[in-house]
TrEMBL record:
GO cellular component: cytoplasm; prefoldin complex
Biological source species: Olea europaea subsp. europaea
One Pfam family in the UniProt entry: Prefoldin
Protein name as it appears in the record: Probable prefoldin subunit 5
Entry-linked InterPro entries: PFD_alpha_archaea (IPR011599), Prefoldin (IPR009053), Prefoldin_subunit_alpha (IPR004127)
Gene3D superfamilies: 1.10.287.370
Family classification: Belongs to the prefoldin subunit alpha family.
Swiss-Prot/TrEMBL GO biological process terms: protein folding; response to cold; RNA polymerase I assembly; RNA polymerase II core complex assembly; RNA polymerase III assembly
GO MF term (any one): unfolded protein binding
């Protein structure tokens, strides 16, 4: 592997200025793509943590409790809690799935707290590339 890296260095020495500029642009594009992907993962993790907290708060409410139910990010309608053990999850494009709260809590816990699923390698990537 070390010899392969040395070969690339020799090839770069033979490149013209235009080729080096194109290589730099390609590297910048790839770096920006990785940085955008990392930001998207951070955003998704934050949204998952918010959903996990909301699910926990919902499970603490008594049955029949009056509440505002979100239809969109900015539209809420009055409703009441019928069964905190089952929730409807919006999976996009107007489709909802009824899921058991305990299963969702377990899924949230696994995703947020198990290093293999959380992406321990992202921390290494941040430290290596200086993205933090």
């Amino acid at each position: 592997m070390a010899s392969r890296g040395a070969g690339v260095g020799l090839e770069m020495e033979k490149m013209s200025l235009e080729q080096l500029r194109a290589l730099k642009e390609q590297a910048d594009l790839e770096f920006n793509l990785f940085q955008d992907s990392l930001n998207n993962i951070r955003t998704a993790t934050a949204r998952l943590e918010i959903a996990s907290t909301a699910l926990h708060d919902l499970s603490l409410r008594p049955q029949g409790k009056k509440m505002l139910v979100p239809l969109t990010a900015s539209l809420y309608v009055p409703g009441s809690l019928d069964d905190a053990d089952k929730v409807l999850v919006d999976v996009g494009t107007g489709y909802f799935i009824e899921l058991v709260t305990k299963a969702l809590k377990l899924g949230f816990f696994k995703i947020l707290h198990e290093p293999a699923l959380r992406g321990q390698n992202l921390l290494r990537l941040e430290n290596y590339s200086g993205l933090n």
